[in-house]
Inverse folding.
């Protein structure tokens, strides 16, 4: 069970059990009855009381598993949280007015006992299961200084939550020879990729700022390893990012987190479908004129489809208006378009200049292959080459490709793949709906002016 799932399970079960405890207390206090005069006060207050108990649990760390290690830690935290919730319940019942004063004080006392038993009981039972079934997370700490050793010790203390520190990485060979006590030094930061593979490491935490840049390049953007990379942030990292996790009192910032949250992906998909349907109707005159112009100047076919690589490196066929002469690559094989490309016809150059050749990709959006905004999809031939030549190129395939993107509105039509990748990564890790709107508006400006398209 992951940490996020444990937290979600805790909130759901506590919500249920808090109310079960109160109802059971009424049942005991009134000998198997739920008198309407007294019980109605609870029915009117139960949403507020539930929030009070959840907030009390949060205060005492019931939803931060690292703060409640072991059965005794759980019992202490639950006792304090339930006691605080009970005191606040009494205060609410007292100050809510005469209608709510009928909330039995003896019921509140009995519920206090039930709540401690229930909230401690299910957590201790789960802890017993988790010690057997919880998957192990193998952690490699980069650094051998006091902060790195403190972090490694804290993670070792939390081994009940699956953490296992396999060892440390030193900054250089001289530092690697230092005695670090119980944690072995497995190499230097330059050897991180090798150590990750050999030790089956799932998470790397950087506690040595000197090694940060090298590790970002070797691990966070590596095509050879699939590992989570965290860093203990300095002031600079805090200025440009957000702290994602805290171990004891040590903040951590994840460098390899997903590009976008699930809600954003779902919202973006809904907007894509609605927008594509609406735009098909609005652009129908342009589609008809482009179709006619191609037939009159280049003949058929009007459209062509080509295999491209989409999210998770899954291939799909993209649709575009034909802008090149027939059999444009029959003698050259796959080549990237360049400025003043001789294969592009005069009509095709006009269609490209104003991005009209991309309009058939509305069908790709409806099919779910693409989005309005995202990295442009590339052909398999070039993807295979770029994966080996450009560090971090695989990152851009964590999201759906787009009809337009930051690279397309920020650079020229034939800018280098390396520069396009930088724009793609900037978009991926800072994307939001407002940014999508800005890119679409900028795309409209490019369409109307032809800027950046040749």
């Amino acid at each position: 069970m992951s940490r996020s799932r444990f937290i979600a399970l805790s909130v759901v079960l506590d919500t249920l059990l808090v109310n079960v405890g109160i109802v059971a207390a009424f049942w005991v206090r009134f000998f198997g009855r739920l008198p309407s005069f007294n019980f109605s006060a609870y029915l009117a207050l139960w949403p507020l009381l539930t929030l009070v108990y959840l907030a009390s649990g949060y205060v005492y760390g019931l939803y931060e598993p690292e703060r409640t290690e072991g059965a005794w830690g759980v019992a202490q935290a639950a006792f304090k949280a339930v006691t605080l919730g009970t005191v606040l319940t009494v205060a609410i019942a007292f100050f809510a007015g005469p209608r709510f004063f009928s909330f039995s004080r003896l019921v509140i006392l009995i519920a206090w006992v039930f709540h401690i038993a229930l909230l401690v009981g299910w957590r201790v039972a789960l802890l017993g299961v988790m010690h057997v079934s919880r998957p192990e997370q193998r952690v490699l700490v980069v650094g051998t200084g006091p902060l790195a050793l403190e972090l490694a010790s804290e993670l070792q203390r939390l081994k009940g939550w699956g953490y296992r520190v396999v060892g440390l990485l030193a900054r250089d060979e001289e530092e690697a020879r230092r005695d670090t006590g119980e944690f072995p030094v497995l190499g230097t930061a330059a050897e991180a990729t090798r150590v990750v593979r050999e030790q089956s490491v799932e998470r790397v935490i950087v506690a040595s700022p000197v090694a940060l840049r090298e590790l970002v390049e070797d691990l966070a953007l590596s095509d050879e390893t699939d590992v989570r990379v965290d860093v203990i942030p300095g002031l600079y990292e805090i200025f440009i990012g957000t702290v994602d996790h805290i171990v004891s009192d040590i903040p951590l910032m994840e460098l390899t987190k997903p590009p976008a949250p699930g809600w954003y992906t779902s919202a973006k998909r809904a907007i894509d479908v609605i927008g594509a349907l609406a735009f098909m109707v609005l652009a129908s005159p342009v589609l008809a004129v482009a179709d006619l112009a191609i037939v009159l100047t280049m003949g058929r076919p009007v459209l062509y489809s080509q295999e491209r690589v989409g999210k998770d490196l899954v291939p799909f066929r993209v649709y575009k208006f034909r802008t090149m002469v027939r059999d444009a690559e029959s003698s050259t094989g796959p080549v990237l378009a360049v400025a003043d490309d001789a294969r592009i016809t005069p009509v095709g150059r006009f269609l490209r200049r104003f991005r009209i050749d991309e309009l058939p990709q509305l069908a790709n959006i409806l099919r779910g292959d693409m989005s309005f905004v995202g990295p442009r999809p590339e052909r398999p031939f070039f993807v295979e080459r770029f994966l080996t030549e450009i560090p971090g190129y695989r990152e851009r395939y964590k999201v759906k490709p787009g009809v337009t993107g930051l690279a397309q509105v920020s650079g020229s039509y034939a800018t280098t793949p390396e520069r396009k990748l930088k724009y793609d990564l900037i978009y991926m890790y800072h994307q939001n709906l407002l940014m999508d709107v800005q890119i679409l508006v900028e795309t409209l400006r490019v369409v109307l002016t032809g800027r950046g398209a040749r």
Remarks:
- The chain has a mean pLDDT of 81.
- The chain has three domains: 3-133, 137-254, 262-449.
